[in-house]
Q: What sequence folds into this?
């Protein structure tokens, strides 16, 4: 079958590899119909993820059709349309039952190499899905791949960020960084009762999209975010701020925006960036800091209901629809920020 | 001054009475600009509220302008535009600090007679407001009386019902009874993350309004609510149901709709109606029952922010705008259900 | 093997039956070492549970040692000491992930007949445990069967009742009915921050035990519970009341005790009892009603930690330790209320 | 009257000053009976608080008897025994109603100089208490000054820390720094359901007291806290860690102890200390950081109930009982860490 494979920094190829087979009775084999290119994939592309062998199949956002199932599978039948979580967990251990599936001993993330659980990814024609009764969800009738694919990763991340932020109805929030996750936070903020949402970015197209979602766009090249928000909120500032860019300048902006006793949610992946203020300043401002990892198992069922009822539509996020064979060029274009969110159309969903 | 007064069942008059004066240093006198007619007022009209003397000034929903203030008032100045809570509480006792302002020893409700605290009402040209720093809120610049008046009563009641229901993002809800409070629950449900909202009523205009708000209307004369919701939710039924009619048939419908381990929120006022099912049935279905009293002190600040940001607009609820002199006829028309929500335009807000 | 079987009302026998075998790859066979007699078992004894075939193996509280495991079991090995949940659920469907395992499509309760999932019970020398990775928990080193056995049922029920009641630190509670579950609520109340706990029962020994647990005992034959609590709380009454007897007089007492805007938690099983007050009274008092089903999957991991740290010790509840062969007599004695909580010592745990 | 006054670094005097008078109708004058010396007072003693005039009356923990009341006071009469919050807030503004009294525009802290609201302190024979209906609480009959005095500050701080930490029943916690606040966190942890509590300090007496409270003491001079807790929790580590020392080494220890997706609560006051790890490390460990300011208004009513029911007794914390005239020596001794928690016995409570 065809798959997108990593061969080291800046070297992603589309090549013929062996089709996966069932290994455990709890596995399913999924024929992939749609798979997406995620910002996290770029960490492999940039060589920042250790222990990714040459020829490793990448990708962790995908929809497809059940091709084969192990003997223990009870939730699915061959031919069912499904969407996957970006990672695997058992649902039964104390960590999973407490809602913290990332601490499950069976945690494996798709397509991120040996260190993340040694599980080949979903940018391929077929993918093996462990613990499929838990890892997969059926796509409700009438919903497309594109409308549901993000429930396994970035839409769940946006939801996790909002839930963990502790905002209540009417609260004022700001989002620093309006890439795909930042946009989805802006899109979902009304569902969590946000009153006013500010979106801060330097890319005009992103700010236009934010405005379309009902947020107030701020371009820090043109306006001082702290000053503007202070004026518009009569000095009350933001109840919660979402750092969705993953870099130091964005953190510095983010920490300038909450009210006393407010929150900064760190959504963007950070690796070795310094903390942007002293512990003393943090204490005196009484700002709580909430690093976030997406929790698809906790939120995808809620999300599928909101998508089915028409309250969330994330398909507008998709800027490019490409064949799998275009993956190598797509990675390079994404790295140059020439595309925002690409999906690969791999096979027929019908 | 002119005021709307009760003289027993079916006898509401507009007559000249003494203008109120400051009594305590924490009082304010408010010149009323807009006041509303509420379903609760009809309990006096029907003679169901004990201890309402002849000539009693009624009404508990009002906006106005500060005419005079006691020496201890710090939040307001003469000339400020304000909206009132429907009742008074101190904000400082253990009950108030816990968020349960109805148990405050200083509780007084406007316009409901001696038993509710002996505080004359707001359907008048002027009204005395005790503990004004707590009871009143300033109307933000740019907002009208009509957009904010319901924060003191029915909009806060809708919010209280949704908050107490315990729903989470994506949940399915049903509202039985689409009068003003039912409509406001439907309007606010998306702010609490409701996925799908069903509204059940027999009045076609109310169902049209519910549909306009994004809900699915059900006329029980035409469709069986339980059967329809069962079909559309694949048997999952409702996570929470709001009984907003205050009568036995509505309760019976309401209790037929929740899932196992779901909730029925009793929003409509009940006085002596029997409980519609046995304790055994309640236990076996595991339905929690949540009677609700509106909590404006807990929610009006959130609501004012949501109104200012454009996320809530309850003015569409208003069907009739009348002079205070029309109050007697308006009570009679409301009693005949010929009007849905009337406001009396008493004076200039500007 | 020996097992306790039901043969109709008042007819429980200990007889030789076939030893169970693995049926699914997710099953385990447990050699039972300790199993308990629960009030719920009496519903079968009284013929109130439909569809219990003659010869049905009863019992749903048990500890034991893993005798055999299916191929998919990953959490246990033969020889491990385990304690079981009273029922089975998958951990992976939307209901389970939301924490509401009772609505799982794979729900089966041990020992309650065909209608409860057709799963033979644990009052036997061996028992087949479906979905064993979820249904069972390992008993931590150093803990006995008796200290952990109630995590699968009544201790989890007490925890569920307290969690769902919504009490906060310092709250005053009352427990009506001081049988095993009532005692465990009194025992666990401090863990949920209860300030003062009242326990109401007519049996002197139960009241003595409640006093030993730090509660204030009330014998309604000697004192009026409402009057006493009103006096001692300066009229504030109870924040939450737990009805743990499952009958109408206990419900009547329970509903007389909460403050306005308080809760009554219905813990005792109810079948066809009438509701003890009108909907109008419920609304005017603003009492929320919370029927409870025990949620061992949500609480047993917390409970095992509290038991291991010495903060909970439920072994004092056990009044009788008997061989399995004494089961028939034990059921009769329990029915005559001559014993409070019996465990059957079936085999060696070591 | 006599009062403890600050005259610059290391210069605290007991001198004769004017007795305070009522200024507002909402004031009370309290004759102080007991007042305590708090670690926060040492910030003035060390000259770290700006804008503290010479002769400033210090102290913010006190109990006493109502000596005089303004015309608007409704909750108290002359002669009532009362305990004060360490600061003043109105209870009526949006910040107060939301439970965040520190953001009240009327915030004033007793005895901390001009920058903290210009309100003279309570280490004196008399003190003026603004907004007395809110700032004070009556001491329940039968309770002593010493048993209630800490509800206005450090006991509320311990409660705030535990509440904000988000721990659930059974969780494992660690407290770094076993001064008065650390001890109170250990004392209150069971009320929040903590399973196992570790207390880390180098002072043997503090560790003995922690052990007496049921915690596991760790002396980092003798044992590596991280290694020990890792061993004892089978690698699960702590769900929440409380930094109660307010210095960098304690922060470093604290951040080494939480599990992935756990919390570090910063309880100790920090001024200009650096943050002890990078933003990248924080994100990768997914540790949430929660700086805490004590919230007496939110917790003192709960605390008074728990004290009255015997569940909390903080009097054991008091190591020294002194006359007010000994204040100068007491500050010096406290600075040398020769006393842990001193109260000044100023007058008769009876």
A:
């Amino acid at each position: 079958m065809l798959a997108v494979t990593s061969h080291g920094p800046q070297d992603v190829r589309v090549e013929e590899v062996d089709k996966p087979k069932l290994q455990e009775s709890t596995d399913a084999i999924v024929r992939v119909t749609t798979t997406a290119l995620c910002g996290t994939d770029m960490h492999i592309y940039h060589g920042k993820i250790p222990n990714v062998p040459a020829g490793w199949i990448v990708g962790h956002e995908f929809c497809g059709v059940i091709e084969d199932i192990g003997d223990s599978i009870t939730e699915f039948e061959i031919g069912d349309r499904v969407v996957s979580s970006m990672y695997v967990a058992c649902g039964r251990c104390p960590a999973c039952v407490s809602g913290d599936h990332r601490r499950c001993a069976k945690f494996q993330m798709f397509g991120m190499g040996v260190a993340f659980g040694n599980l080949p990814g979903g940018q391929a024609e077929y993918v093996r899905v462990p613990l499929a009764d838990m890892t997969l969800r059926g796509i409700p009738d009438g919903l497309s791949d594109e409308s549901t694919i993000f429930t396994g990763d970035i839409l769940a991340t946006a939801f996790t960020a909002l839930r963990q932020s502790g905002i209540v109805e009417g609260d004022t929030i700001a989002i620093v960084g309006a890439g795909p996750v930042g946009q989805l936070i802006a899109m979902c903020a009304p569902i969590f009762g946000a009153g006013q949402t500010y979106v801060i970015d330097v890319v005009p197209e992103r700010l236009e999209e934010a405005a379309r979602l009902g947020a107030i766009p701020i371009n820090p090249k043109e306006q001082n975010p702290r000053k503007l928000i202070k004026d518009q909120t009569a000095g009350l500032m933001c109840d919660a701020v979402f750092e969705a860019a993953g870099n130091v300048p964005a953190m510095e902006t983010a920490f300038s925006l909450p009210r006393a006793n407010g929150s900064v949610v760190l959504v963007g992946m950070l690796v070795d960036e310094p903390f942007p203020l002293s512990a003393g300043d943090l204490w005196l401002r009484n700002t709580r800091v909430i690093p976030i990892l997406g929790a698809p198992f906790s939120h995808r069922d809620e999300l599928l209901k909101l998508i089915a009822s028409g309250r969330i539509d994330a398909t507008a996020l998709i800027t490019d629809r490409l064949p799998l064979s275009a993956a190598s060029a797509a990675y390079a274009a994404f790295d140059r920020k020439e595309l925002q969110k690409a999906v690969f159309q791999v096979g027929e969903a019908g």
The mean pLDDT of chain C is 96.
